[in-house]
Amino acid sequence: MSAMDLDLAGAGWRKSTYSNGGGGCVEVADGYPGIMPVRDSKDPEGPALVFPVKEWELFVVAVRSGEFDVL
Fold it and tell me: Most C-beta atoms within 10 A of its C-beta, which of 33, 46, 47, 51?
């Protein structure tokens, strides 16, 4: 099954603990082995991005370490 064929209609979305009140709202859906669906909580009917779990974990580690705090 490709990411294009993935049915996320029944996904249990949860807001990321890194979301903030300034408009940065990311939701993830657990329960999909090997992949991590991610979407913008302000546009729940919009598209979701799907990442391999390992790459998502590496991204979260980089965020936690401040690697992307350039603004």
Answer: 51
